[in-house]
Structure formats: C-alpha cells, structure tokens
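#struct-help
A.M.: can someone run this one for me? Single chain, 298 residues.
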Amino acid sequence: MRARVLILLVLPSLVASTLSSAATAGPDHHRRQSPTVARTEPGRVPDVHHIDPAAVAVGPGHPQIEDNFERLDHVAMPSRQAAADVYFFDHGARGKLAYVGSFRDPCTSDGVRIVDVTHPRSSAVAAVAPLSDGWNTSTGDVVVERVGARRILAGGLQACGRDGRNGLALWDVTRPRHPDLLSFLRTPAGVHELDLAVRQDGTVLALLATPFVEYNNTYFGSDAGGEFRIVDITRPANPQRRSSWGIICDSQLVTFGGDEIVSSFQGMDTFFTAIYATASETRMTAPPPTFPIGMPAS
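D.P.: on it. Structure tokens below:
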C-alpha cells in the first residue's frame, strides 16, 4: 500500500502548474508522474525568428515541457461551468475515467464531469457527480483514491455565489457511471487544492489547502484555525476533522527580511497564504514546519 509524506507549499496567490502524464499501468495505478523535460544547452540563446519551445526561458539547464503532444479527441462538457482540474483513474474492468472539475463562472454548481477515456480517440461523458444548484459552488480540484473496497472521489468546493458552500465533497465512484454523493464537510474557506493519502494502517487522509482563513482571522476577528487542514475520510460517509496548521498561528517562520510572520501581508508586495497541499509516495512522516513560504507578488 502506498505511503506518502505530507508536503505543504505556501505560495502567493498566483502559481504555475505543471502537466502530468496519465499512468498506463494496471488498475489503481493513477498517481501523477513527472513530465518529460528538455533542457537548453549552456550558453544557448534562442533564435528570435524561430522560438524553440524548449528554449523559451533563457538560462543554462532551464527545464521545459516538451512540445510533443498529439490531440486525440475533444469532448464537450454537458454543463455550464468551465472545466477545471482533471484527474485520471484506471477502474480496471470498468474502464479508464477522467474526472473533470468545474470552474466558478457561471456559478451553477455543476459538480464533477466523468469522461470515459478507455478509447481515447472516441471518449465520451459517462456521468456527472452532481451537486445541488442551491449550493452556489464550484468543484475546482478533484482526486480519486481507493478507500477500503470502494473508489472515492473527493472534490474541493469553493463558494462562487451568495451563501455558497465551501468544503470537501465525497462521492462513491466504485461504479463510475453511477456516482453517489456520500458526504459534505464544511470548511471556513474554499478548498483550493486537495490530495488524498493512504497510510499503511489503512487510514485515508484528505489534505486540504483553504486560503484566506488566517487573513480572516487577522483582519475580521475570526478564529477558524489554519489554512492547511487534515480530514480523516477512512469512513467517507462520516469524515472527521483531525487538525489544521497555519503559517501565522503555528509557525515561527520568518520573512525574507528576517522578521517573524505575524500577518498575511508582511513586507513590500508580499502575501502569505496556503494554496497547495500534496502527499508524497515515498514515506509517511511529516517534515518539520519549515515549508517553502510566500514569494513577492508581482
């Protein structure tokens, strides 16, 4: 059983994402893998008349994603919200499925679109993991993991309308064409990113990044804990909050100037907030709280 180390990344409100290749191994082998990269030759300067995608960024040894992709198909989503994050999961005999999150505009609570990509040149929407229109939310980040005998889809909800819902939604997708909403757990801010970690003892943890919680604590008198949260979803119909961690309330980290971080805004053009959480596949020990922290915002 995979064991993973907890990694919390605290960054500014703008981050760059990297592409991940879909696993082609057996069922349940679905974790993100490192992309193929090309590197510029030391001292090489790109030809301004023909820009090499692998040399867009000047500098020796700068990694770039290779421009070697082929579009196999296009699938129109059946709902109104734009597509967000995509997660691939191999269900074995039930097929290979892509889980497509939903972006906030328009705020129509479209849930998660489930696309059958078993035959990638003729893929099709197989189902939708639904939410109620009255929730006024979007499901930007999605992850699927084996929890006991079931396959569980986790979605990070971010409110996008009045009285909208922030939190963690869990569906049973053991039969991916018939998703079943099992539970919803509220959080004090939207779940911007999430990951699932399966411990060696069978415990399954949801790792959540909920930006702006400490901002609200500091400037609006809230007392909602930190921006990184751990939820036990071993029993997905009854998820349990376990802990939270905040860069302000739980660390003694310092800014680039050497001052202890005591607010979300500290230093010129700098904003500190937790927007990403992931788990490593190598070991299940949490590192000390010396996580990478905010970079100057542009």
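A.M.: thanks! The longest strand covers residues 137-147.
D.P.: also worth noting: The CA atoms of residues 182 and 237 lie 5 Å apart.
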